[in-house]
TrEMBL record:
<dbReference type="GO" id="GO:0016020">
    <property type="term" value="C:membrane"/>
</dbReference>
<keyword id="KW-0408">Iron</keyword>
<keyword id="KW-0249">Electron transport</keyword>
<dbReference type="InterPro" id="IPR041854">
    <property type="entry name" value="BFD-like_2Fe2S-bd_dom_sf"/>
</dbReference>
<dbReference type="Pfam" id="PF00384">
    <property type="entry name" value="Molybdopterin"/>
</dbReference>
<keyword id="KW-0004">4Fe-4S</keyword>
<dbReference type="InterPro" id="IPR041957">
    <property type="entry name" value="CT_Nitrate-R-NapA-like"/>
</dbReference>
<dbReference type="InterPro" id="IPR027467">
    <property type="entry name" value="MopterinOxRdtase_cofactor_BS"/>
</dbReference>
<dbReference type="InterPro" id="IPR006963">
    <property type="entry name" value="Mopterin_OxRdtase_4Fe-4S_dom"/>
</dbReference>
<dbReference type="GO" id="GO:0051539">
    <property type="term" value="F:4 iron, 4 sulfur cluster binding"/>
</dbReference>
<dbReference type="GO" id="GO:0050140">
    <property type="term" value="F:nitrate reductase (cytochrome) activity"/>
</dbReference>
<keyword id="KW-0411">Iron-sulfur</keyword>
<protein>
    <recommendedName>
        <fullName>nitrate reductase (cytochrome)</fullName>
        <ecNumber>1.9.6.1</ecNumber>
    </recommendedName>
</protein>
<dbReference type="InterPro" id="IPR006657">
    <property type="entry name" value="MoPterin_dinucl-bd_dom"/>
</dbReference>
<dbReference type="GO" id="GO:1990204">
    <property type="term" value="C:oxidoreductase complex"/>
</dbReference>
<dbReference type="GO" id="GO:0045333">
    <property type="term" value="P:cellular respiration"/>
</dbReference>
<dbReference type="GO" id="GO:0046872">
    <property type="term" value="F:metal ion binding"/>
</dbReference>
Amino acid sequence: MNNIPVMELHSSTENNVTITQTTCPYCGVGCGVTATVENTVIGQKVSVIGDVNHPSNYGKLCIKGNNLADTIGLQTRVLHPMLGRKVDAEHAYAYTRQQTDWDTATDLIAHKFQHYMNEYGRDSIAFYVSGQLLTEDYYVVNKLVKGYLGTANIDTNSRLCMSSAVAAHKRAFGEDLVPASYEDFEHTDMVVLVGSNTAWCHPVLYQRIMQAKEKRDLFVVVIDPRFTATCEAADLHLPILIGQDVSLFNGLLQYLYQHGHADHEFIQAHTQGLDALLDSSQPESDIENVATKTGISLEKLQLFFDKFAQTKKVMTLFSMGVNQSSRGVDKANSIINAHLLTGKIGKLGAAPFSMTGQPNAMGGREVGGLANMLAAHMDLDNVQHQQLVQGFWNSPTIATQVGLKAVDLFEAVESGKIKAIWIMATNPVVSLPNADQVKRALDKCEFVVVSDICKDTDTTQYADVLLPALGWGEKDGTVTNSERRISRQRAFLDAPEQAKADWWAVSQVAKKLGFHGFDFENSYDIFKEHAQLSAYQNAEISQRSKTETFRYFNLQGLTELSLDEYNELEPVQWPVFQKNQTDNSYAQLFANGQFSHADGKAKFIATTAIDPVNQTDSEYPLILNTGRIRDQWHTMTRTGLSANLSSHKAEPFCEIHPNDALKYGLKEGELVEIKSAWGNCVLRAVVSDSIRRGQIFAPIHWNDQFASDARIGKVVNPVVDAISGEPEFKHTPVMIQPFYTQWQGVFYVRESFEHMVKSPIENTVWWTKIQTAKAVRYELADRRRFTQTTEHLKELLPFEDESFEWLNLEDQTAHISHSVVLQDGQLIASLYIAPKALLPDRDWVASLFKRERLSAMHRKALLAGQAMSMGNNEGALVCSCFKVGKNRIIETIKEKNISNEKQVTACLKAGGNCGSCLPEIRGLIKACQAEAAE
């Protein structure tokens, strides 16, 4: 509900226990969470559960949210300002990193920025920020850059996930608007999920859709090149060829128009541009032609078109599979066009819905976080908007030209056009396409500032100044989720050491540059100014004809909040025109047919279907598609710390069709090398018929802290959408081949001893790191012959003093070597080198690190590399919450003749907590049923 009452305290302390309502820092669903901090004699104990009163999730959390408490330790944190690069670059300015204080660090930043502006101009400075920032951080940095430094060279990692949707919204609606709410998914009759593995990437919203499907006749369509977890419960899966979304939705539009399903009354009263769109989409007027171009069967296309035509209330959710494309803006507009043609917009249960990836991507859009935007949904190239923002800020200058977008920005860094860059809360050396180019750029850049919570990331090593930021649980401010809902993210932990809020760090530098307007005392001061700017010369919808600056983004009702009211702010959807706004009138925007273009009408956008850029050829015959997995987040700097989150998909992998695996000589579970014109990486092969022939899929998460050679960003091409600048993460031509090694193995070391073996590990040809409950596991491979590994084993296990007890077993002829290290009866390390089929069960070995002492039987089993009883072999983990594996689920399904996932939950608890594994359980049930039917 849209209400802002002052309710009970959202943070309370009793009996050394503090309970705080805050917001999850992961995906764009924006779930509310309740964090409990208990002060004990051995320190603070933190637990996190869902907030049952938050309207985005009503207490539900996914597996990542449920394990938030695992990720807030200080073991990887940067806690003091640091000067000097960690790496030895080839430049005279490279030096050893030293601890310093905030005053010295901000003095240096201000001095360097002033020097570069004087010598090379304002555009020699750039910022690259993140959807991980709170709105208040985002606002202050954009105010400094665009209103005081006078450049628009500030972009955000949100460019990589939703900038195509932003451009599409502005073209169609006149403003960047998601016109619906999560509630709409409970009232619709048809949900179309386009380019979204919602079950894994936005699990809580997916479960909400599934619950609605259980209660009513809800038809679910998934449009995705792969058969993903989201497809398991779908009524229809359309396995589209990568890049052909415009063909599909142009075909849908032509079909709707030809068969009398256009809402001519709505079109006449509230839209423009239909004739041009009908002309541009004429090639898709033949459904057989659409079937050929999209690779979807004629039967499935006909069913989809008929269902969309005959269903009054349709919600079309689109995400990264649409946005991350060289044609992402046209793809999004082709979806919006179909809704405008049929009037399926502005009504409960009917709308196009862009699902953002990050927790505050929407908040960043509100404050003009992208290089082509001004704050408060105003346009950077609009002179009136420039004057309005500059006048409100009373700033000395204002950016008047669009700045460099992410890919172009780092190319400008490498060329020397950008002399200084400040990177905040993001890891572009991993996340950007052609990622090694970003490495080269930062290595060459004269002055790099990085604000982060992690000391060692692929990006922080290039920092000349490394600033300690606040992490989740320490930050205080607001975020806005995908349904335009503003929520408070409240601090429940003290700031560690010298860590500071990003807005504070930016304000310090701004003041040292001599700028006024940055005397903020807290996030409340910033939020009020942000709200006031949103309402400044911005009329309500009923008065829109009186102003040329009408915008739906308007927080007028929040401009007079007191500090207490801000602290107790309930989740609220914008626009907020009045204080204590309690009705739900703006949950569905455009209900009155009023859009944000000057004439109040929406625009059909003519979209032409063309083939993707960079088609395959004989050298690079396959298409690489990238995306997320269920239990990890972005570049793993946070989720990689959790043993629970590291167990579902433990290693970097790529999926490939069985026929392609046979063609290229690849085997399940073996290492493969993927190469493109931009780079290469090494991953574990997963052979699966869930992916089409000619395509491979790899996740985006692994970085150089967790694997030797798995940064998929190195391989991804840097082609971008000409309008949005969003990169093409879904279509890179690649080749694939086996990655040959002499041996493979698995190595475990107790956490407290990991520092002793890290360097030797990194000398192996290939490795990947997995966090377990008490130890760190490394999967290893090397090209040295097995007979030459003796010295290498000693490097890996440097436990030489008399307190360590060694157990060894070696068989050169069988290529087997087992080494176990104990101390006072406790397991310290174990190393197994053997043929893949003879390596031990990983979960069993990890479990032995939890024991205080090992029995004689455990020692024998450990040395043998085989558990005393394999009867409890769970197999690959499915349910991370209750640690239930694939083998046990299959055995239970067959034994009890199970037909639905609820029965599995009743027997094994699997799926009974966060629900993230339910799609996978459904898939196992279907597989067992198919096997029984043969």
